[in-house]
Design goal:
Elements: E1 5-9, E2 19-25, E3 32-33, E4 38-43, E5 48-52, E6 57-62, E7 69-71, E8 75-80, H1 82-97, E9 131-132, E10 157-158, H2 181-190, H3 208-216, H4 239-250, H5 258-271, E11 276-284, H6 286-296, H7 308-322, E12 328-330, E13 335-337, E14 343-345, E15 347-349, E16 352-354, E17 357-358, H8 366-381, E18 395-398, E19 418-422, E20 426-432, E21 435-449, H9 455-470, H10 472-478
Parallel strand pairs: 14-18, 18-19
Antiparallel strand pairs: 1-8, 2-4, 2-7, 3-6, 4-5, 6-8, 9-10, 11-21, 12-13, 14-17, 15-16, 19-21, 20-21
Helix pairs in contact: 7-9, 9-10
């Protein structure tokens, strides 16, 4: 670390975090920051987290642009002390004060002029990632390529290059292109030759939009001087053009990262580790819908949202307490039964599927559970779920009914024994008290880990939930 300059390295904000994406910077180079001031938003595999600054001073460098993925332990920002920022100005004033006075006599013997230093070879633009702030005064200065993107004016030192990170080399006599690693990978996957593009980013940096524009651009007209094949047909298309055309026809490639990447890994792990069994049950929830209507007019629920999901959640909590192995985890040679019900609610968000959970849900009254479920959903959709709220769940509900779906076969959240899918409620003909009537009916689907729950236990759990929804008085008795 340069004296007077503090490097803030990406911390592990969640258990086992290895990397995070820079979502939004709240500061820029030259801004004054204070301790605990929010400086950046990062997206982990679980949530978007705001990071506070641990230093006072002036932002001297941002090491990663928005959208970049950074490993834990890598520096993301440099903050200089105020004294360190003022020092260069004082240093530049010193030579002027030391200049000889106009009346000073000239020396008797002229000193030979010092030879000018040989110019240094030009550096490729991609070396912006290899530069660090502040060079020794005696070294000749090199002109930086990007100020504020890993380079400060006058910077000459280089950071050690990571193993396997090869320096870009000219291709066919052309200068190396300036593009970040994610953009290079995108171009490689799509078959776009970066050396044929003109960057629209800072100092000619090639961006993702430049790569997309290259795919969407119409093919260039054939040159009148283009060589023809011996049979008179047109010459073959260049390999890069063929690859770009094929990639464009294949459709858009969407990078998988953050929450979606973590969700995909979790679903694969769960589907191919836990032996899933799914059972279905149709339930007459007309009494539950009547209870929902009454609670919506109750003063105790005036400030909260009351929905059928509230009763389903309360019923599953009660059923899990009656059947403890449903609230458990498989641990190799043992089944770990959890003392608390941390109820997870699957939430579809712009960032992907999140499953935040209500801690100690079995201790909450019906009004408090309603408030917790409302807050959980709002926080998740706003992208503000904390890593703590996304870990430690013991059993889950997925409300597929809001999408107009009757039933499904949900995949278990890794580490949990059961997940309940709650389908849509609709009017159906139903035999009620010996007569055919139109009733409010839903379908419940329970997936469970057959290592932990056998068929009898899973069936009893699902039947318990159905009984409590068919008769809310049973729910009160079993809660």
């Amino acid at each position: 670390m340069v004296s007077g300059v503090h490097l803030f390295k990406l911390p592990d904000v969640g258990e086992g975090l290895t990397e995070a994406e820079i979502v939004k910077w709240h500061v820029a180079v030259g801004d004054t920051v204070e301790v605990n001031q929010t400086i950046v938003e990062i997206e982990t595999a679980k949530a978007i987290v705001e990071l506070p600054c641990p230093f006072d001073g002036v932002v001297s460098e941002l090491f990663a642009a928005e959208g970049a993925t950074v490993d834990v332990g890598e520096p993301i920002i440099a903050v200089a002390d105020a004294a360190a920022v003022d020092a260069p100005a004082a240093a530049t004033a010193a030579p002027e004060s030391a200049a000889p006075a106009p009346d000073a006599p000239a020396p008797d013997v002229a000193e030979p002029a010092a030879p000018e230093p040989e110019p240094l070879p030009a550096q490729p633009a991609d070396l912006k990632e290899d530069l660090v702030p502040q060079a020794p005064p005696e070294e000749p200065k090199r002109q930086p390529v990007l100020v504020g993107y890993g380079v400060k004016p006058g910077a000459t030192k280089r950071r050690p290059r990571k193993a396997g990170h090869a320096r870009p080399q000219p291709v066919d006599g052309r200068a190396a292109t300036l593009a970040k690693p994610p953009v290079r990978k995108m171009a490689r996957d799509l078959g776009v030759d970066l050396t044929t593009l003109t960057g629209s980013g800072p100092a000619g940096t090639i961006t993702r939009d430049d790569v997309r524009a290259a795919l969407e651009a119409p093919p260039a007209p054939a040159s009148p001087t283009a060589p023809a094949a011996p049979d008179g047909s047109a010459a073959p298309t260049a390999p890069a053009a063929r690859a770009g055309s094929a990639a464009s026809a294949a459709g858009e490639r969407i990078p998988v990262k953050g929450v979606r990447k973590a969700m995909a890994a979790a679903m694969v792990e769960s589907a191919f580790t836990a032996p899933h069994v799914t059972e279905f049950l149709q339930v007459d929830v007309t009494p539950t819908m009547d209870a929902v209507a009454r609670l919506r007019t109750s003063p105790d629920f005036a400030d909260v949202k009351v929905s059928p999901l509230l009763f389903v959640a309360k019923a599953l909590i009660a059923a899990a307490r009656r059947h403890p192995t449903a609230n458990a985890t498989w641990d190799g040679d043992a089944i770990v039964v959890h003392p608390s019900v941390n109820l997870g609610i699957a939430a579809a968000t712009d960032r992907g599927l999140l499953v935040p959970n209500v801690k100690d849900a079995q201790t909450l009254s019906l009004p408090d559970l309603a408030r917790a479920l409302t807050a959980l959903a709002e926080t998740a959709r706003a992208g503000r779920s904390t890593p703590a709220s996304l870990t430690g769940g013991t059993i889950t509900i997925t409300n597929i009914g809001v999408f107009g779906i009757d039933a499904g076969t949900p995949i278990l959240t890794p580490g949990e024994a059961a997940i309940l899918a709650f389908g849509r409620i609709r009017d159906l003909p139903w035999v009620h008290e010996g007569e055919l009537a139109i009733r409010k009916v839903t379908t419940l689907a329970l997936s469970f880990d057959h290592r932990i729950l056998d068929g009898e236990e899973g069936s009893k759990l699902l039947r318990d939930v159905g009984d409590m929804l068919e008769d809310p008085l049973t729910l009160l008795a079993r809660s």
